[in-house]
Task: structure prediction
Amino acid sequence: MRAAGGNTPSRWLAVVNPGRRTEAALREVLCHAHHLARARHERRTGAATEDRGPQW
Result:
């Protein structure tokens, strides 16, 4: 995902009332984004977190 008009990745995502057809794709995008955010946090803080997988 890219921020509007820029080349920097967007770190914000808003989903309003997802339908059944988009749920699987949405979960995949959210899991990937969460993984990237955790990795970024670990790089910045040196904190390793336990990977427990999706919480739903």
